[in-house]
Amino acid sequence: MDRGTAHADIFELSLAGTTRDVRNALSTCRALLSPICENPQKLDDIELVMAETFNNIVEHALAGQQGGAPIQVSCTQDGDHISIVFKDSGLPFTNNVPPQPKQVGTTAHAKSLPEGGFGWGLIHHLTQEISYARVKQHNVLTIVINVAAPTTAPHQNPS
What we know:
The protein contains 3 helices and 5 strands. It has helices at residues 19-33, 40-61, 119-126; strands spanning 8-16, 70-78, 81-88, 129-135, 138-146. Strands 1-2-3-5-4 form a 5-stranded antiparallel β-sheet, with helices on one face.
């Protein structure tokens, strides 16, 4: 997906991988993104994507690490798209591939649904692009979101 070459830096943050620091970072990121995202529902969607991503990093990648290992997050804008890059020193994804959304049949009863695992479905649904790389013992996850698109735009796999 070619979006041109002009990138504007929106923010760059470093935080400890703890739930308290994630909460504070989400509030800061929302405030920094609000001038470029005029649609309040889209801003809520971006915050949800970031919250799910941060929570996955803290609960899975950094699980067992003492003292809240650092997470770096940066955001750039290119036209109507923002790229949010999350970097941490936690465990890599299985087979170096981010999870795909879980498929749930339409006849499933609420009691038979698994307790977790739906965060990746939300992330895929609310983004246009997801890429992952393992670089020098660090996870680098990049999520691209169209800030002008309707809030129901599904994730599209690059061809």
